[in-house]
Amino acid sequence: MTRLLHISASPRGAASESLGLAGAFLDTYRRSRPEDKVEHFDLWDGTLPEFGPAAAAAKMDVFAGAEPAGERAAAWEAATATFARFDAADRYLFSVPMWNAGVPYILKQFIDVVSQPGLLFGFDPETGYEGLLKGKKAAVIYTGAVWGEGRGPAFGSDFQQPFFDDWLRWAGIRDITTVRFQPNLVTADADAAREKALAEVRAAAASF
Fold first, then answer.
1. Measured between alpha carbons, how far is 102 from 201 in angstroms, rounded to an integer?
2. How far apart are CA 113 and CA 124, in angstroms?
3. Domain 3-41+84-206 adopts which CATH fold?
4. I need a surface site. Which of 1, 45, 79, 118 has the fewest CB within 10 A?
5. Residues 1, 140, 196, 144: what is their CA dihedral angle, to the nearest 10 degrees?
6. What gap in Å lies between CA 82 and CA 78, rounded to an integer?
């Protein structure tokens, strides 16, 4: 059975543009592939572990070939359990709003938790990193309310898609589909752009 995991980074519920577009994607996907299993991981639901001093020390233990112990072991177990939940999926849908030119901090926390040696990536002193999530595919919905292509620097910068797409590729995911909905909601009517984005996510889901 193919498993799709929707990972959402917006805390805005029904008011979220990224969650609304993700809902349209999933509706189409379920109709197109009714035999697949679809799950949702809301990064704001309280289940994402922190990645603090103990977890960072555990990661370095593993890098050095040592076994984490004590509170480091507990932190490592929490991180590896989150990775296992992530890795169990074959396909991913990420809904990612733009926050301060980048991604929400909760998504960066998720990345820090699951990006572990021997799990998400390997490392060779001579050849460097190797992403281990080979054979998986991802769809990413990027939204934002002010920045957009073709706007001047007064409207901000885009560190959202370059950062997140780069992480996906670094992790070994090469098959990436993206949809962007980033009209200037402050000064323009976004209805036409929203309808265009909805059509794009439905088309992407039908062929995903």
1. 21
2. 21
3. Rossmann fold (3.40.50)
4. 1
5. 150
6. 6
